[in-house]
């Protein structure tokens, strides 16, 4: 998995230079992945469903093969495990099968998001262009039987390309912040061409294309530790240049792929991100739990940054456990969710979490720490205490013996952020 763009000197704020440096490093990942895929034949059978697919030879998988090609199945299962392990918790990762991606069992990331919430996902286009334009251009026609290795290389290419083009969102966010007024005018006028002109930097693109060509020519050379026998009557210079012209991949191809596919897709994503940059965030409730057809419909209708909230399970909640103070502090949102009369005070939020974890029809108002300790609890809603509310708890340290304790200077700050932090409503994952 490629690393994420690092902020300048760890400042937390991404700069255009950080992003360009990161896109530059991704060039290596993409070029090496293309070289690896070019090593195998086109192997069209891994891209077919049903007749003529890899599955045909397997009785166990013939039903599956009607629905998915070998590559689609490989990619879907790869994403499933990566999703569980938190890959798609990162805002610079976008799945190819968003509707089938399970939530991670890791706790949500506590760091603030850099992007405006959005659901921009160009992976259907990435997949289409990869299969119909990239693979036929880099692989020799035919079938060499290396289905697993080819699909494996495809997944590395696809995920790297997807990451590259979706970085258009981060690039657009930085450009927006740098020229807020100019972008705001164009966004309000829905001036797509104007946005495209403003965000385009031709000099950066030209340099990138020259660099990609040079990298592909350098990394793609066949390098042998055994000198090739020189043809009779040839000079030493002839032999050296003959060896240097043997490439694993035509160096023109990565450059063309960048010029015709990757840069245009990145810029389309930049424009689409900007067009929704000023929209108000709204929450759309759908019949949950996640995975219903209703989620599919909501994703189809609302694809511009709305927060989709699974709502069926709220109806099935018979009890909301928490500490009495927390129940009071969260009253406003509990009332909105019709849960006010289901409150059951217990000794602590941790006890509430424990009880919710044991009862599929119970929810609890809990801290992030409790969520980490009960990975089978699913978050229904963050920030239950309401926007802007700051609840503080005072901790007293008491001792039988009079002693002078020296605290770590950061302790007060840590305690403050712990106790003023958001409270989440969580339900047992088994809640129907
Ligand atoms: C990504 C950027 O935005 C645009 C897209 C580029 C690309 O896809 O490589 C390069 C320059 C810009 O025209 C950027 O400015 O770096």
TrEMBL record:
It comes from the Eukaryota. One of its GO terms (cellular component) is cytoplasm. InterPro entries: Chorismate_II_sf, Chorismate_mutase_AroQ_euk, CM_AroQ_sf_eucaryotic, CM_II_prokaryot, Preph_deHydtase. It is found in: Cytoplasm. One of its GO terms (biological process) is aromatic amino acid family biosynthetic process. It holds the Pfam family CM_2. This is chorismate mutase. GO terms for molecular function: chorismate mutase activity; prephenate dehydratase activity. Residues 149-270 form the Chorismate mutase domain. Gene3D superfamilies: Chorismate mutase, AroQ class superfamily, eukaryotic (1.10.590.10), Periplasmic binding protein-like II (3.40.190.10). Pathway: Metabolic intermediate biosynthesis; prephenate biosynthesis; prephenate from chorismate: step 1/1. Its EC number is 5.4.99.5. Keywords: Amino-acid biosynthesis, Aromatic amino acid biosynthesis, Cytoplasm, Isomerase. It comes from Monosiga brevicollis (Choanoflagellate). Residues 313-401 form the Prephenate dehydratase domain.
């Amino acid at each position: 998995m490629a690393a994420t763009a690092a902020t300048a000197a760890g400042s937390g704020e991404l700069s255009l230079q950080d992003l360009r440096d990161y896109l530059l490093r991704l060039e290596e990942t993409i070029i090496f992945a293309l070289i690896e895929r070019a090593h195998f034949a086109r192997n069209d059978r891994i891209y077919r469903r049903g007749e003529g697919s890899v599955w045909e030879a397997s009785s166990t998988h013939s039903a599956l093969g009607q629905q998915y090609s070998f590559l689609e199945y490989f990619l879907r299962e790869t994403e499933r495990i990566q999703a569980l392990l938190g890959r798609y918790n990162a805002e610079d990762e976008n799945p190819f099968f968003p509707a089938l991606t399970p939530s991670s069992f890791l706790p949500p990331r506590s760091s603030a998001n850099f992007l405006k919430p959005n659901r921009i996902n160009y992976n259907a286009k990435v997949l289409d262009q990869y299969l119909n334009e990239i693979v036929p251009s880099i692989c020799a026609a035919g079938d060499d039987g290396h289905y697993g290795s080819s699909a494996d290389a495809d997944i590395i290419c696809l995920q790297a390309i997807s990451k590259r083009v979706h970085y258009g969102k981060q690039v657009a966010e930085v450009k927006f912040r740098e020229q807020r007024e100019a972008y705001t005018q164009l966004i309000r006028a829905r001036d797509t061409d104007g946005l495209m002109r403003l965000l385009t930097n031709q000099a950066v693109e030209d340099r990138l294309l020259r660099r990609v060509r040079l990298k592909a020519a350098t990394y793609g050379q066949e390098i042998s530790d055994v000198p090739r026998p020189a043809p009779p009557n040839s000079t030493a210079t002839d032999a050296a240049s003959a060896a240097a012209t043997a490439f694993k991949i035509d160096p023109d191809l990565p450059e063309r792929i960048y010029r015709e596919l990757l840069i245009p897709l990145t810029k389309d994503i930049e424009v689409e991100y900007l067009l929704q940059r000023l929209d108000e965030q709204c929450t759309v409730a759908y019949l949950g739990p996640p995975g219903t057809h209703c989620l599919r419909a909501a994703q189809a209708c609302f694809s511009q940054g709305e927060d989709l909230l699974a709502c069926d399970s709220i109806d099935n909640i018979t009890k909301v456990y928490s500490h009495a103070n927390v129940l009071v502090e969260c009253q406003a949102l509990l009332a909105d969710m019709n849960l006010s009369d289901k409150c059951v005070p217990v000794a602590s939020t941790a006890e509430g979490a424990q009880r919710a974890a044991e009862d599929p029809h119970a929810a609890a108002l809990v801290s992030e720490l409790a969520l980490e300790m009960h990975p089978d609890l699913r978050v229904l809603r963050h920030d239950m205490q309401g926007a802007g509310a700051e609840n503080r708890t005072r901790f007293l340290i008491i001792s039988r013996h009079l002693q002078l304790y020296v605290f770590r200077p950061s302790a007060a700050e840590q305690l403050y952020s712990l106790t003023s932090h958001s409270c989440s409503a969580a339900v047992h994952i088994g809640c129907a």
